[in-house]
Amino acid sequence: MPDLPAFAYTRPCDLAAAMAAIARPGACIYAGGTDLLVALAERRPWVRFVRQLVDVKDIAEAKGLRERDARLRIGALVTADELASHRLVRRHARVLAEAAEQTSAPALRRRGTVGGNVCSPHPAGDITAALLALDAMVEVADGTATREIPLGDFMQAQAEQWPRQQLILAVTVGRCRRSTFSKVGIRPAFSRSLVAVGVVVTDDGLRIALGGLRDRPFVSAAVAASVARTGGLEAALAAECRPPTDGLVSDTYRLRLAATLVRRAVARVGRR
Amino acid sequence: MIGRSLTRTDAAAKTTGAAIYPQDLPAPPGCLHIAAVRAPVARARLRSLDATPALAVPGVVRVLTAQDVRGTNRFGLADDDQPVLVTDRVRGASDVLALVVARTEPAAREGARRVGLDLSIEVPLVDPEHACDPDAPVVHPERVASGRHPNIVAEQTIVHGAVDDALGRAATVVEADYRTTFVEHAFLAPEAGVAEPGADGGLTLFVATQWPQEDLRQAARALGEPLEALRLVQQTIGGAFGGREDVSLQLLLLLAARAMNVPVRMVWDRAESIRGHGKRHPFRIRHALGADRHGRLVAARVDLLADAGCYASTSAAVLANAIAQACGPYAVPNVRISGRAVYTNNPYTCAFRGFGVNQVTFAMEQQVNKLARALGIAPEVLRRRNFVHEGGHLATGPRLFDCAGLEATLSAATARARRRPLPRRRGDWRYGRGLASALKNIGCSFGFDDHATARVTVTKDGATVWVGVAEVGQGAETVLVQIAAEALALAPQRVRVEWRDTATAPEAGSASASHQTFVPGNAVRLACEQARRAIALLGGGQRLPREGVSATYTFHAPSTDPLGHAAPTRHSYAYAWSTCVADVGVDTATGQVRILRVVNALDAGRVINPKLLEGQVDGGVVMGQGYALQERFPVRAGLPIAGGLAGCNLPTAVEAAPLIETVAIEGTESAGPYGARGIGEITMIPVVPAITAAIHAATGVWADEIPVLPERLLAALDAARVAGSPLDRRR
Amino acid sequence: MSRAATCRVSVTVNGRAHTVRVPAATTLLALLRAHLGLTGTKDGCGVGECGACTVLLDGEAILACLVLAPEVDGCAVTTIEHARDARLQRLRRAFADEAALQCGFCTPGMILAAARLPAGATPATIRAGLAGNLCRCTGYTKIVRAVRRAGRRRGPAR
């Protein structure tokens, strides 16, 4: 295997210690490791700045999945595997369970975390897309305070600048009665998504999140509005998407795939 | 013992973690580690290299370059055109420019990252269609061209009859260009090994390879080592499929062990493995096939262009094989089959399960299926009408015998397929069934002396057979135990087959061409029969002397004639046949294809171990499925884009054909051991055209390029819709 | 190397306790193979793309190449070398009987991944459960059959 560059390792036992550790230069948050260890093994350019991995898997505030004020609070350390099988998620946030069970591969689902997925830089983050469709909030520990911000805003801020002292503790989502997730990769299993679609039926209509169609997953009100209009969906997708250049498929095909997935997801969720 | 599904002799070792693959070898005491320096480009002149930054890394002890190679510094399976270490010219991804030697593996890798390279980068030749342009970059300027373009590795044309005339008079002609791409072998175990100098001045290699004696012969020439002082001990081989027939890291290990006079170890990670060995040949096949109105084939004009990549490897043999089988198992009285393999700066191409026959079978079977459609004749009827019959001539001249099995596979496959109906259309999904037949030569053809030697010793404790085969996973060790047990009338538990050490196991040829059952199998059988006769002469097993009775036999396969021979008796000494029926579903909104079921009827002679044969069929079908639908190996400017397995897009358990039905027909007489022939490759060959025929049945679209990526299929479906598609009339 | 860059790891592997000091930047895979000499767990790619390094960590099937050695301190690991695990024994027997292995390189990871599939799982469930374990030799057919067979047996392994 490619050998890892040298780094130190620490495993803080509480949030305060964790925040202190990640504030240090060269600190890197380590949860499931399914992205981070690959990046280290492949020696991505930023790897040479990494000095210490801060293993956050003991932080109590980042664990667990429970109902709170009619919302679901999902600890950042909850794995894809746990999401896929959790009674509350399957019942009240089905799009998230479906994303979690279709993403990646079984052994990786047992390690990949919600927090890791939200921070992952890939255009198609299946769990992130599902969370966006659910209009998730992110609970972030920032220095000594904790605040809650919409996931979309969090991702925007992250793209602009990643402040060193930030740790995701949890995401919270409201309940929904009807929702679904759909993805297409380069093979039916064990593949990053070319296109991923999360659809949630809300009181105000459809909420649609898309993965693989911009540099990060995003919600598109225009696409949701266009679903009912003949020919509107293709136009909305063309206007809203900026497909990443991964050389796997053409932009035309990607958009076509997106339209098919959106239509099918909407039809499926309408039948529930 | 023949026909019994004996449990694999290596099952226990492989299911307990006891089996040692090269990466599992511990570093011997005093061992140093080596890492290769490779270029960041596919084509360049190496002006100089600077080892100083590497030597400054703690633990790095030496940097070896071409100057340290004592022999010719050249190796290859056919032409010695590949350098152990680059002297002045980088030609492709697999080139190694220097070898960093260090006390630890991480230090060696770090050193390799730091060697300074002064490269004069040149525009690589990447398009084989332009390899013979007057101004094409020359890949091997050091090679004497002898009148033809220096980028031509091999070319040949076979002509019988008057093909242009016959095509002109044919009732129906189908004409198309077919394209196939690079494929990565993706054997699961990346390359690794250890080399140790001996007290006697010799060198021993501990690696996993398909042809140990050939590795050592190349080492002797390239490194200037006396052949008799070289030894190779095979470790457990983690898959091969042709990708371990060429030298990979063997010469690097031997070079370093000699230079440092201590044991050395090298382990390749997946990215290096992908760079370091060859790929399947991409082919462009221009094919015109004509038939009379009764559906009898009258003419075939085939032009093949194969990308040989940066080194010749076995491209000439692959091309010859492709030409010889370009018209499949059909009688075609007028043919012109021409082919050319050219150098480019792409990754070198080499042996890969099928050895050129996959590509030409895809084209020919698709052409036959198109003809069937055009003529309104059922695909199986058209085939029956045109299969070469007993004593008939293959398109390239030789007569075919013992071929009744071919038609038997067609009958069996179609009968079995009929037992299960196709699903009815549902939403955007359409379903279709397709059929293809194929033949595959067994063993090395065209005049190669395909031979193997086996030695057996029988004592009161049982028998030991020494034969230098390679158990690459196909079950060769188990099959040879069965053959020996049968020949000696011993229980298989009392028979051992020793294949790993060149010091004791005589040469048995390469683990390729599906030949190990036939050639080493016969050597084992005949050696054992000889021993058994000697034991009988002594008065039976109770009269065995303490040292036992020994016998040695060298079996030579029947002789064959080269391609282009004016009146060839045969090009290959045996064939296997198969007919494959594939059922697929196509999501016509996305272009995705799912395999529902594959029926594979084959005649490879007597079945020695039914479960092992089924395993080869299963594996060949899924490898064919991957080749047809999804496996990629994108190359840019001569270098692989995929650094790992994910990019190669191999089939997982989810999309692998969920139902594979094997029908083994033990039809015809064969000179193989107990009538067995060989199955390693035939299992894969008809799968691709059966799938593309099924796609056509489902959608009306002919996919002439593989892999049939969803995007491409969708584009073809769109074009068909615009043209007034028959799609809606399909089930 | 600073002390913080090495770690003392006490881990139970196949029922046996081990304590080693390794660099923090050591994967569980390297810990098993290089430091403990347990080479049964294979290195097919090192980056989570093949499944050959699947082991059980506190009972869960994970990829050893993507877990760090320091975090398995205090944990229990099961590898293919575990000689007294009834599930593994049933799977070994079934793989051998069904000829569900050829080159054998994917086999340790495949068996460990299969060990956590529910008994009585359907072929589709088995295939989905093994989606992350690549095999290039067998086409998966006999692997699925072997896992089904191992799942149907009850009682101690024969």
How would you explain this protein's 3D organization?
The complex is a heterotrimer of chains A (272), B (731) and C (158). Chain A is built from 12 helices and 12 strands. In chain A, α11 crosses α12. Chain A has 3 domains: 48 residues; 115 residues, Uridine Diphospho-n-acetylenolpyruvylglucosamine Reductase, domain 3 (2-Layer Sandwich); 92 residues, Enolase-like, domain 1, CATH 3.30.390.50. The longest helix of chain A is centred in the C-terminal third of the chain and has 20 residues. Chain A is globular. Chain B has 3 domains: 186 residues, Aldehyde oxidase/xanthine dehydrogenase, a/b hammerhead (Aldehyde Oxidoreductase, domain 3), CATH 3.90.1170; 326 residues, 2-Layer Sandwich (Aldehyde Oxidoreductase, domain 4), CATH 3.30.365.10; 106 residues, 2-Layer Sandwich (Aldehyde Oxidoreductase, domain 4). Chain B is 26% helix and 24% strand. In chain B, α12 links the parallel β20 and β21. In chain B, 63% of the residues are buried. Chain C has 158 residues and is an alpha+beta fold. Chain C folds into 2 domains: 76 residues, Ubiquitin-like (UB roll); 67 residues, DNA polymerase, domain 1. Chain C has a 5-stranded mixed sheet, sandwiched between helices. The longest helix of chain C is centred in the middle third of the chain and has 12 residues.
CATH-scheme architecture of the largest domain in chain B: 2-Layer Sandwich
The helix content of chain B, as a percent range, equals: 25-40%
Number of domains of chain C: 2
> How many β-strands of chain C, per DSSP?
5
Sequence-ordered SSE layout with sheet pairings:
The complex is a heterotrimer of chains A (272), B (731) and C (158).
Chain A: E1 8-10, H1 15-22, E2 27-30, H2 36-41, E3 52-55, E4 65-68, E5 71-75, H3 80-85, H4 87-92, H5 94-102, H6 106-109, H7 114-119, H8 126-133, E6 137-142, E7 145-150, H9 151-160, E8 166-174, E9 178-185, E10 193-202, E11 205-211, E12 218-219, H10 221-226, H11 232-240, H12 251-270
Parallel strand pairs in A: 1-3, 2-3
Antiparallel strand pairs in A: 4-5, 5-8, 6-7, 6-8, 9-10, 10-11, 11-12
Helix pairs in contact in A: 5-8, 11-12
Chain B: H1 11-16, E1 32-37, E2 44-50, H2 52-55, E3 60-64, E4 74-75, E5 82-83, E6 89-90, E7 98-102, H3 105-114, E8 116-121, E9 152-160, H4 163-169, E10 172-179, E11 192-197, E12 203-207, H5 212-223, E13 230-234, H6 250-260, E14 264-267, H7 270-276, E15 283-291, E16 297-309, H8 315-324, E17 334-343, H9 357-375, H10 379-386, H11 404-418, E18 429-441, E19 451-459, E20 462-467, H12 476-488, E21 495-498, H13 519-538, E22 549-556, E23 575-587, E24 592-603, H14 610-629, E25 635-636, E26 639-640, H15 645-648, E27 660-664, H16 687-699, H17 710-722
Parallel strand pairs in B: 1-14, 12-13, 16-17, 20-21, 24-27
Antiparallel strand pairs in B: 1-7, 2-6, 2-8, 3-7, 4-5, 9-17, 10-15, 11-12, 11-14, 15-16, 18-23, 19-20, 19-22, 23-24, 25-26
Helix pairs in contact in B: 5-6, 8-9, 9-16, 12-13, 14-16
Chain C: E1 6-13, E2 16-23, H1 28-35, E3 54-57, E4 60-63, E5 76-78, H2 86-97, H3 107-115, H4 123-129, H5 141-152
Helix pairs in contact in C: 2-3, 2-5
